[in-house]
Amino acid sequence: MLAVAIDRSRPSELLEYRTRPTPSTSEGVVEALCDLAREVELDGCLGVGLAGLVADGEVLRAAPNLQCMIDVAVRSLLVEELGCSVAIDNDATCALVAEMTVGVAQGINDVALVTLGTGIGGGVAIGGTVRRGAHGFAGEPGHMCVNPNGPRCVCGRNGCWERYASGAGLVWLAQQRNVNTDHNGHVVTGETLATMARAGDAHALAVWAEFADWLALGLTNLADVLDPELFVIGGGLVESADLYIDRTRERFVESVLGGRARTRTRIEPALSGPSAGAIGAALLN
Ligand SMILES: [Zn+2]
C-alpha cells in the first residue's frame, strides 16, 4: 500500500510518502487505509485507488492480490471512520488521471495507460475524457486473451495477457527458460531479473526480450481498438523500462495495423513512476 499527501496546486510534489504491506483481511486493509490517512496528516479529502473492478465506492471484483476486498463498501467505512470526503476508483484509472494532469499525458486526448505490476491494470481516455465504461469496469486489458492454449489465469480463463506481460508473467517466462534462481541462489523476482540483465546475464536478457514481445502484442491489440496517440507504461515494472521499452516500441511498429503510418503512437514510461496511482487517487476529489 502506498499513501501520498499532495497540495492540489502542485500535485507532483509529494508532501508525504508512506508505504506498508497490504494486510490479508478486509478489516486490516480498511484499518491500514485509515492509519495511512492519519499518518500523512490528511486534511480535507481522501482519494483511494484500489486494484480490481471498482464502482460506487465498492470493490465488486477484486484483483488476485486483493481478493479479501470483494463486495466491501470501502467508501462508507472510510467516511464513517475519518469523517471526510472520500473518492474511490480503480488504481490504474487513478494513474491515468495523474499522468494526464501532471505527467507524460498532459494535453493528450487519446491515451491508454497500462500498469505492469503483479498483474496488468489499465485506464483509457478518449477525446480527453477518462472512460470508465457502462459499469465502471472499462480498461482491464490484463485479461485480454493472447493465447487460448496458454497457462491458466486466476480469472478462470487461459492465456490472459497478464500471464505474460506482468511482474508475475515475467517470473513465469523466466521459469519456462529454467531461469529459476539468481547468482546467489535466490528465487528470481522482477527485481533480481533486472539486476541480472543489467549485469549482462544472457538468459535474463532473453527473458526481458520475450517480455517485451508479449507487451508489444497486447499494446498492438489495444491500438487496433483504441488507436491512441500515446501509451503510458506505469506500475512497479516501469522502474525496469530501460530493459524492455525500446524493443517493445520496435515490435509494436512492426506488428500494428498501419505500421509506420501510425507515426503518432508513442510508448512512454509514466512520469510519476509507481506513485502515479496514489497521486491520481488524491486528485479524484
Ligand atoms: Zn485472466
How much strand content do the residues show? Answer: 15-25%
Largest sheet data: 5 strands, mixed
Distance between the termini: 19 Å
Say which molecules are bound, naming each kind only once: zinc ion
> What would you call the structural class?
alpha/beta
Look at the structure and give the mean pLDDT: 91
Order of helices and strands: EEHEEEHEHEEEHHHEHEH
3D shape? globular
Q: Under CATH, the topology of the largest domain is which?
A: Nucleotidyltransferase, domain 5
How many discrete domains? Answer: 2
**Can you identify the CATH superfamily of the largest domain?**
ATPase, nucleotide binding domain
Helical stretch tally: 8
Q: CATH top level of the largest domain? A: Alpha Beta
Q: What layout of secondary structure does this protein have?
A:
Blueprint: E1 2-7, E2 10-19, H1 26-39, E3 45-50, E4 52-55, E5 58-62, H2 74-82, E6 85-90, H3 91-102, E7 111-116, E8 120-126, E9 129-131, H4 167-176, H5 190-198, H6 202-226, E10 230-234, H7 245-255, E11 266-269, H8 276-282
Parallel strand pairs: 3-6, 7-10, 10-11
Antiparallel strand pairs: 1-2, 4-5, 7-8, 8-9
Helix pairs in contact: 1-2, 3-8, 4-6, 5-6, 6-7
Keyphrases for this structure?
single chain; 2 domains; binds zinc ion; globular; 285 residues; 8 helices; Nucleotidyltransferase, domain 5; two-stranded antiparallel sheet; alpha/beta
Describe this structure in words.
The structure is a single chain. The protein has two domains: 2-94 and 276-282, ATPase, nucleotide binding domain (Nucleotidyltransferase, domain 5); 107-269, ATPase, nucleotide binding domain (Nucleotidyltransferase, domain 5, 2-Layer Sandwich). Helices cover 34% and strands 22% of the residues. The protein has eight helices and eleven strands. The protein has helices at 26-39, 74-82, 91-102, 167-176, 190-198, 202-226, 245-255, 276-282; strands spanning 2-7, 10-19, 45-50, 52-55, 58-62, 85-90, 111-116, 120-126, 129-131, 230-234, 266-269. Strands 9-8-7-10-11 form a five-stranded mixed β-sheet, sandwiched between helices. Strands 1-2 form a two-stranded antiparallel ribbon. Helix 1 crosses helix 2. Residues 143, 153, 155, 157, 160 line the site of zinc ion.
